[in-house]
Structure formats: structure tokens, C-alpha cells
Amino acid sequence: MSTGTKLEKEYNKHGTEEIEADTEEKLIDDGYESAGYVGSTSSLRSAVGKYLMNGRLHLAPIDTSNPQRILDLGTGTGIWAIDIADSYPSAEVIGVDLSPIQPQWVPPNCRFEVDDIELPWTYQANSFDFIHSRNLEDCIKDWPSLMSSIYRCLSPGGYFELVETTPDALCDDRTLPSDCSLRKALDYYQEGMKSAGRGNFVTPTILRERLEAAGFESVQVVTVKQPIGSWPKERRLKRIGALARLVYTAGLEAYANAVMKRFLKVEADIVDGLVKGAIEDLKNNRYHTYNYLHIAYGRKPKLGE
Ligand SMILES: C[S@@+](CC[C@H](N)C(=O)[O-])C[C@H]1O[C@@H](n2cnc3c(N)ncnc32)[C@H](O)[C@@H]1O
To answer: 18-73: per-residue pLDDT in tens?
Structure first.
């Protein structure tokens, strides 16, 4: 069992079900940070994604009556794999990641493997009903090659679902100043990732083309706005925004060191000042900031189709 943070423990207790209402109300009002809920970004992103998808773990119309084998690529803390294993007890679920950071106590139909998904796959062709990936965009050097592994190992009629968030700070009503620290920090992030040969900015078109080029059919892309910060009035969105702000806060601190300091060689005090300012921007509920969550899925044609 993970010995992680308070938030991870809460998830371990409840799965990704909602945190108890009274606890949550307090969290949203006080801010998750002040309540000590600084969880892993992977778990937090998972919660945000699930809330945005109205509690659903996937949108692909898989045969939910009897899924057999499900694969989660770059599973991180394994939270999605664990949840899907609980949802479909008939399925064997495998979560694969470079790092062995998954918990040991998991549903009996879920297991984890440590492997590099960019190396040739050892899974048999046509052996999965459903393959899922989330927030891997900047991790993958060669998407066409990965897509061809995914396509080969899906069974005919099986689905691949790809979920990505954009590392962005958008605003429709001009409340977020164009020269604020948050925007500057994200510009640096993009520049740094590009200098490392990464930093694709996913759009619905890019995701659709990626799936279609690999041979998938009936491709659908659903895009949802994800508020960042607890500025929305509506309770559900406020909760999503409060969690998303935590993801951004933790991400900013981590990426500042890796991308700005290491890749771009920006001076440490400039980076630290920018991060501090960006975190203040995230807390400012006058700034109506959001980004996008894109969910793309497609089906491998059945033989003879
Ligand atoms: C941003 S995290 C996303 C985690 C998880 N999918 C989620 O949304 O909660 C990216 C994960 O991909 C893993 N990863 C990156 N490159 C990988 C590779 N080539 N093979 C396997 N895992 C990889 C990282 O170790 C990390 O856990």
C-alpha cells in the first residue's frame, strides 16, 4: 500500500470515488493546498479527468459486457488501471510504465509491468480489447511507431483511447493578463520542450490525424474545457478547477527545474520568481483561466470490413 500523501491515502480508501462531501466542501473553500492535500500529479490529473468526463473512465464505446484484456500505457501511479479493473472484473488489466511507482495492493485482475513502450512490444498481435493512454504527449519521441504497436496488438473491433491536456492558460474574458507570470512560465515550458524535441501542442486535428493515419476508423475527438483555479461559480467546475490548480502548481515547480533551469539555462532566481508569480496567478480567482482536455478514440476495423 502506498505510504503517499493525504490525497493519495484518500484515493486508496475510496478509489477515485468522490471524497466525502463535507470534507470536500471544506477543501474547495479553503483551498486543497492549505488543507495539506498535495498529492501526486498523476492521481490529481486522474481525478480531474474523471470529473470532467462525468465520472466515466473512458468514452470509447467498448463492449462493456465482457472486456477481456485492457492495457494502460504510461500508467503512472496506476490509478486509471486500478479503477478500470474494478469496473470490469472480467477483464485482465495491465498497466505499463518505465517507473515502478504503482501500489502493490491492487484488484486481483490488475497488474503492472515495468517496460519502455517505445521499444518493440512483446505483447501478441490482436491481444487487447482496449488500449488507453493519458497525458503521454511529451513523453513519446515517435508517435507513429507507438501507434503502429498499439494497432497491431489491438484485436479487430477493439478501441484505442488517447487523452491529453494542453499545457496552456487560456481565458475568454481577458481577465488573465497577457504578460502575467503564469503565461510567461508556460511560454518557457513550451520553448524548453521544443528545444528537447518535444512540446507538441495537441489539437483535435492532430489527434484525429494520428489515429486515422494508424488505420483506426470511426475516430471521435471530444474536447472539454478544464477550469484552472476555483473561480467557476458552479460547484462541479469549482471542484475540478481547484484540483487542476494543484496539478499546475506541482507541475510548474517540477518543470521549472527540469525545463527552464536545465534545458534553457535560465538563471535560478528568475525561474524561482516566475514560478512564485505563476502560483499567485493560479490562486487569483479574478483570473478566469482554463485549458483543454482532449479525448480521442478510434476502432481497429474488424476483419473483412
Ligand atoms: C504524465 S504521466 C501520466 C500518468 C498516467 N497516464 C495518468 O494520466 O495518470 C506520464 C507517465 O508515462 C511514463 N512514461 C513515459 N515514457 C514512457 C515510456 N517510453 N514507456 C513507458 N512509460 C513511459 C512516465 O514514467 C509517467 O509515469
So the answer is: 444 444 444 444 444 444 444 455 566 666 766 677 778 999 999 888 888 999 99
d(CA 221, CA 113): 29
- Cβ of residue 47 lying under 6 Å from some atom of ligand 1: no
Pocket of ligand 1 contains residue 44 by CB under 6 Å: no
Whole-angstrom distance, CA of residue 142 vs CA of residue 127: 22
Q: Is the CB of 113 under 6 A from ligand 1?
A: no
What is the C-alpha to C-alpha distance for residues 273 and 96, in angstroms, rounded to an integer? 37
Contacts of 253 (CB under 8 A, 6+ apart): 275
One CATH from 3.40.50.150, 3.30.1390.20, 3.30.565.10, 3.30.300.20 for 6-165+201-225+291-299 = 3.40.50.150
Cα separation of 2 and 6, whole Å? 11
Ligand 1 mean position, distance from CA 133 (Å):
9
